[in-house]
């Protein structure tokens, strides 16, 4: 009986504490909370509308910039060749990915500078000066990019995507739709990049084979050939000024 009375007393104390906290907190919770109004709209004067559309267009371009850089420029060929050089040298992470990607980006800017200059002069500047509309800007801006992609796209790759899409063959280059031109251009870039990478691989593979044969003839089967061939491959690449030759060859392919 005493235990029951003690337990009931404890429950009563807990209930009183909860009630007191509720009475203390309630006035605070009952206070009105002012939430600021948030309003996102595009409107106002004509100048404000043009500025808002320019900001929206800029944000859209920035969001899809990586895809544009990879798909419609020389970036794909450059980064693949640079990566294959690193693999051929067997230096693993040297140069690091940040260096290779940065070099590929700046080489892409150098190669694509005339194309982007044409886009700026023919499409973007007239649009900013309100001489042309948005549709005409997009159509005019695609012309230099289309010409660049068509120049380095193989007919076999274009024919492949026309065959898969069941479309009639175009009568002239201007009739090629952009959704067919872009994947055909990327496939062509992959083909060219792997051809260049294969040519680069040949001398380094020969060094690996020579070193492996020498080690086997000496009975040093437990020694990895890569450890011995790596300094010779780096020395060969440095002596022939490999980076200069590779960069020059890549730029001259465009």
What does this structure look like?
This protein has 10 helices and no strands. By secondary structure, the protein is an all-alpha fold. The N and C termini lie far apart (98 Å). It has one domain (47-252). The radius of gyration is 33 Å and the shape is elongated. Helix 5 packs across helix 6.
Quick one: biggest sheet?
Answer: none
**How many domains, in number, for the residues?**
1
Number of strands: 0
Overall residue-averaged pLDDT value: 75
Global morphology: elongated
What fraction strand?
under 5%
List keywords for this structure.
elongated; mainly alpha; 254 residues; disordered N terminus; single chain
In short:
The chain is mainly alpha-helical. Helices cover 77% and strands 0% of the residues. It has one domain (47-252).
Task: Give the topology.
Elements lengths: L1 H28 L16 H18 L1 H7 L3 H15 L7 H32 L5 H18 L3 H11 L12 H40 L7 H15 L2 H11 L2
Helix pairs in contact: 4-5, 4-8, 5-6, 7-8, 8-9
């Amino acid at each position: 009986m005493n235990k029951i009375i003690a337990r009931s007393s404890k429950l009563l104390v807990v209930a009183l504490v909860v009630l007191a906290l509720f009475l203390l907190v309630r006035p605070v919770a009952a206070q009105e909370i002012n939430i600021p109004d948030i309003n996102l709209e595009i409107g106002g004067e004509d100048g404000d509308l043009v500025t808002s559309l320019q900001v929206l267009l800029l944000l859209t371009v920035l969001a899809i910039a990586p895809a544009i850089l990879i798909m419609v420029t020389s970036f794909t060929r450059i980064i693949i060749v640079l990566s294959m050089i690193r693999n051929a040298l067997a230096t693993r992470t040297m140069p690091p990915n940040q260096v290779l990607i940065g070099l590929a980006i700046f080489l892409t800017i150098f190669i694509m500078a005339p194309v982007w200059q044409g886009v700026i002069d023919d499409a973007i500047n007239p649009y900013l000066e309100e001489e042309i509309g948005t549709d005409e800007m997009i159509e005019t801006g695609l012309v230099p990019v289309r010409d660049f992609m068509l120049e380095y796209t193989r007919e076999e790759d274009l024919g492949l995507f026309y065959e898969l899409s069941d479309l009639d063959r175009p009568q002239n280059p201007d009739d090629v739709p952009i959704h067919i031109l872009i994947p055909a251009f990327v496939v062509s870039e992959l083909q060219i990049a792997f051809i260049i990478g294969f040519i680069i691989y040949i001398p380094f593979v020969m060094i690996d084979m020579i070193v492996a044969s020498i080690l086997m003839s000496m009975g040093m089967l437990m020694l990895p050939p890569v450890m011995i061939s790596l300094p010779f491959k780096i020395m060969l690449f440095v002596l022939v000024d490999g980076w200069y030759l590779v960069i020059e060859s890549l730029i001259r392919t465009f």
